[in-house]
Each structure stands twice: as structure tokens, then as C-alpha cells.
Amino acid sequence: MKSAIVFGGIAALVAVAGWFAAPMLAPSRPPVPYFIADGLPAHLSDWGVVGTGGGRLSLGRNVVPYDLATPLFTDYAGKLRTVYVPPGQPARYDDTQTFDFPVGTIISKTFYYPLPAGVGAADGQVLPTTPANAQNGAAGLDLTHVRLMETRILARRASGWIALPYVWNAEQTDAELMRTGTIEHLAMQLPDGKTQDVAYAVPNVNQCASCHTPDNASRKLSPIGPKARHLNHVFAYADGAENQLAHWQRLGLLADAPAPEAAPRNADYHDTTQPLAARARAYLDINCGHCHNARGLARTTGLHLDAGVTDIRRLGTCKPPVAAGPGTGDHIFDIVPGKPDDSILAFRLAATAPGIRMPEAGRTLVHQEGVALIRDWIASLPGSCNS
Amino acid sequence: MRHQIGLTQGEPSLGRTGRTGQAVRLVLGVSLGITLAGGLASCKKHAPAAAVDKDVQAKLLGELIDAKPGDVISIPAGTYHFDTSLSLNVDGVTVKGAGKDATILDFSGLVNGAEGMLVHASDFTIEGLTLQNTKGDALKINEGQNIVIRGVRARWTGGPSTKNGAYGLYPVQTKNLLVEDSEAIGASDAGIYVGQSKNIVVRNNTVRQNVAGIEIENSTDADVHDNIATENTGGILVFNMPNLPVPGSSTRVFHNHSFANNTANFGARGTAVASVPAGTGVIVNSNPKVEIFDNDIADNQTANVIVSSYFSTGYMNKTGVAAAYDPYPSAIYIYGNRFQGGGTSPDGVKLQALRVAMFGVGGHFPDVLWDGYFDKSKLVNGKIDPALAICVDNGAAGVLNADGPEEYKNPSTDTAQYACTLPKLPPVVLTGKLAEAATK
Asked: Among A176, B171, B190, B193, which one has the highest count of C-beta atoms within 10 angstroms of its own C-beta?
């Protein structure tokens, strides 16, 4: 495998002994989650939250899939998110913050691309994930036309959360710990017949912290997605549809959650039946709000885009940039109401150059649907910056 | 409203020199000869131009990830090409090269991340290396205390270009900071940019060909001394920006040499530095308590010293600027500097017209240019409060009040109102290990 060659020189660093490096289990016998309290497990299979066999990525026992109302955009990759909470130790609900998970919690996010017909996982050709070819993951993933890229583990240890990126091997049988990250060059076949080169970046462990540090002063890692507002909607589980908060509470993953109607809820940015502003704010919340908040890494900019912000100046209206450099695109305000073409926010979402694009990490392509949404929202805003 | 007044060039700046064409040269200049040596089989049109030193990069990333407090991470002499931003999240680490001429980290082929090195840590020292050709900032230190940047060069090798990364050396929200013996060349915003920090010494550095050579922004208690600033658009800036957690104050700019900072402004429109006229030696914008003394300031074509308000940047508006923000410079004390030349060709049509109208075709602005904004709500008996005054005690140096508020209608060279003194600011005292470093 290419990455094994590249990183062969530092095998000692990344490949701390794999105590449980057994072959992946067949789906008839789901893997058993195994919380590893110390060290750096070399293989994803060590954790037992997902396993491969029989052409499927299957979920471990008591591993619950989930999704977010509006997700982070990651170069049109599909994502399967799972949570495992030690039995009898539910996470504590919170209205706005990530739930307080107990030691022993294992969260995983598997990134994948659908494959064109007749193409193998090792060929380097992929398709963008769309609502039509995405899998909801209720029963794992059908790997028939899928390339698994990486699975990121967030495990709650006694010392706090640890973030570990695992990169899937060419055989798609297991994923290997790659703490220094890697870049995979892909050729993405677009619907119009063109091919888009993608330098798919698996983050290194320190880069994980660049998003997963909600409070830059404490620098403690935390999951981002498992918050009430992102989970408060119906998920089509294998045994029937149910609101995720209610499901988690019923299974004992979560305690003290209010009824879904009483909990905050972000919009699905795709859902045009929902208000434009709610869709745009949900999009900015999950794509930008983890850094752009009062305590996050981008608090130095004075631009706060997380869900709770109501001050339109904090949201960027007529706000001069602070440290954008060429990222202004020669525009003078973050948002000019009614004028997406004059707004730095729209410019940076539509940019791909490192140093210009936002978010800074996690994407190299333009999310056309996301840009269109934010432009529509800016176009709908009243007022001007002329006084 | 936005463009009516201006120390800016008055018009949107798409036509400025230096804005285009440079970036291509930059990339090609670095890649020549190296792609051949690397023999990259997978090199496609989006792949980096230069062969990435994967082994060195992975080793360094691993050391940064696994660093423990007290570690010294050494990078041997050599030029290394990286495609990934470096980052450090552990306190108490030193990153050390073999000298800024010997250890060179090149980020021309950066695809993952934006900065050269991004640090979230305290008790951090970096010394003896060059970070060059980053897409974003070369070195960003985002929150931390007891930070030393010593003998570090940040540069873009293709000359001034708007396509260059924004900041060279960029500590932000730091406390107890020493930047010394370093260099910044070609930043499209500020070469050395100290933001939202406290207790700062910036000394013995050289800054060239940046839009802003050294910028102290929303920072408190800074000593900027014994630096050389030349060929920038503006040499040394002391700014306060709106909407940030804290305003800055109390900066001393002394014993620097700021000369011939006449490079056309190549900052992207919308940045604070885009408002700086080309040909500025030292500029204060919207900042209280600034002392400028014992400097050699020469041949800056707009003015050797500018004192200005946020109103002159063109970005002031009621919706997007916090009401609590104070856009006026106050308690500015300029004394004992050695001025020479300068003011001969101010940037922008309006300032040129003002120069000709007041001083004749061959004339020049005096050494100090004030845009004329002051806070009318703080007048005492109809006069500027002596505690908030601009005081110039600098021999024969003249002052021009450009009357920005009235669009240059009533400019004045009467210096009577500046004949005053202000209490001198105390020197900055670095603490802890930095105190020892400071008296080395």
C-alpha cells in the first residue's frame, strides 16, 4: 500500500503493538467494542466498533449509527457515524454543548466514496456522494460499490478524549493508525463527465485538534456532532424510524434528555421546506462554528458563526475582517446584506486555495450546494453597510 | 460614506502595481530542478510542484505530535519541501533549526492546511530556521504565554504579491512575548504581526517588502525597538481594530530605523493594512498611548510619521463596528527622532493634490501627518484634553493636520497645538525565562 511505504520510516511511531490485531469478523458475528484505555492501537479492528466481511462494513454490538441534521462538508465524502457508550453509563444531556460522555465511550466516523461501475476500491476513481448514492448506515455499509477512505476514532479516556485517524488498506479489510495523516490522490468523476482531482487529506492528530477544541484556552478535545441540535431528528434505524434523542435515551446511551419537541433542533440544509435562514445558520454552525465562536480557535477574528449567536455584527454583517489577508478577495465586509458577491463569507466558502478557503481544514473542493445556500441567505438579508 | 475620505488611495485598488503576475513566478522559481530529482510518479496537475520530503515531514510531524514539555525538536540544516502544515499543541517545547540560513522549510507545495506552522501552546520557543512560501501565515501562534521567536525568517521568495500569505510571524492572544533577531520578507499583510497580546518586546528584527513591516494590533504594553524596516508599504504600524475582545494601548516605538518604505500597497482590499499609504515610516491608527522616539525615520514618500483614525481606513460603519470601539488616536507622543527626507510623493490622488496645493510642485509634506480626526465628545473647554493630545517635541519637525473630516478643506501646518508633553510610558519588563533572555 502506498501509504505504508511512505510512512515506513516511522513505523515505530505509528505502529504501537496491535494487541487485538485479529482478522475482521464476518457480519454474522458482529464485532464487540473493546475500549482501550491506554496506548495507540495500531488497527481500527482493535476497537471493535466496525468490522468488514461478506462485502459489508458492519456495526459492532451495541454500536449505534447516527447522523447530523446538517453535516460538515468533506469533499463530497460519505460518512458513517457511530457511537458506543458503555452499558449502564449514559451520557448526560446538554442543551447546547456536546453531551458529557462517560469514560469508555467510542465514537467513530468512517469516510467513504461511492465507486463508478466496474471500478475497484484501489483504482483511485471515485464518485461524489449524493443523496441518491449515500447510505444511511443503519445496518453498516454495503461495500459493493464503495471505497472506504479512513475511520476516525474519538475515544473518551480517563485523561480526556483522544483522536486517532485510521486509513483503510487497499484490500479494504482493516484500517491502520496513521497519526501523522496522509494525502490520497483521487480522481472524482463528476456528473457532467469531467474528472476532478482530489487531494484527499487525512488529518494528522494535531490537526484533529484544530476543529475538535471547542475551548482554545483549555485545549481539551471534544466531539462536535453529538449535540442536541444536530441529533434532534428522525433516523431510519434498521428496526424502524425514531428520533435520535429518544432512541439514545431509550437505549440508555443518554440520560436527562427532554422530549424532542423541547430540545433545540438545527435545520437540514437540504430541506427547502424549512426557512432559508434556519438552513443557512445550521450550515454555518456545523461547518464554521467549531472555530468561529467566542472560545474557539477563530475567536481572534471577532466573527462568531455558532448556532446561539444573535448579534448580526458578530455574524459578520458589515463587519470588517480582522486578519483575512488575501482572504478578503478584495471585499471589505464579511457580509454585505443583499450582496453575496461583495461578501467575504461567500468568497471564502467558494475558494479552494489554502490560506483563502474556509473552512481551512477538511475540504479542498467547493461545496456547490453549501455556497448556493449561503449566497441565497446573504441575498435575502435586509439593510446595507452605507452608514 | 466608505470612500469619501482617505488616507487610502481613495478608489478600489484592483489596478495597483504588484497585485498580479508574481505568484506564478514564485511557484516556478522554487520548483525548478527539484521535481526531476524527486521523480514523483504520481505527480499530476494538482500535485505539488516540488518533491515533498515525505520522510522528514512525517518525522517532524511525529515529533510535534508526541512532544512532551521540555522537549527540544531539532531540525538539521537543509532545505525541505512540505505539503502539510505543521502544528504543535503541547506546552514547553522548543523548535530549533540550525540557523535561519541553514534550515529552510518550504511550503510552496502546501495542500493540507494553510499555515507553515500553527502553534497552540505556551512556553514555546522557536529559533534558527526559515519558513517560506506558505499559502497562509508562515508562523501563527494562537494563544499562549512566554513565547520566544528568535532568529526566525518568514519569507516569500517571489517578491511582493497579493498572492503571498498574509502574515510572516503572527503571535495572537499571547502574553509575555519576545520576537528578536528575526526577518520577515514579502508578507501580503504584515511581516511581524503581534495581535491581541500583552507584554511584548519586538527588537533587532529586519522587515522588508511587506505591506506592513511590523504591526502591533489591539495589543498592550509593547516595546518595538532596534528594528530595521525598509521597502515595505508602511514600516511600523500601531493599530486598534474594532470588534475584538480587547483594545490595545501603551506601545513604545524607539531606536528603530524605518526608511524608504515606498512599496506600492499590495494588500488585499478590505484588510486594515490596505488603508496604509505607500511611503509610511511609522503609523498609529486609533490607538491610545503611543510613544515614538529616538528613531531614524527617512525617505518615506507619504510621511515619516502618520497619526490617523479608523475613519480614514474607509471601513467605518454603524452596523458592523462595535459601539464600544474608540476610533481615535490619543496620547501620542513623538519626540527626539531623527527625520530625513520623506513626504515628497504621497500615495493617492487626494494627498498628492494636497501636497501640491500646500507646498508647491516640488514641495513635500512635513515629517508628521495627522488626518485631523479627534473625539469631539472629549473636548475640555473646547480644546483637546491635554492627557489625550498629540504632542510633537521633535526639533524642527513639522506637522500637517490634513483635515480629513472636512475632506482636506482646511489643512493646517500650525504646530502650536502639538507643543506639549505627555508622561512617558514605562519600559516593558518581560518575566520568567524571557527576563533572562532579555538580558542575555
From this structure: B190
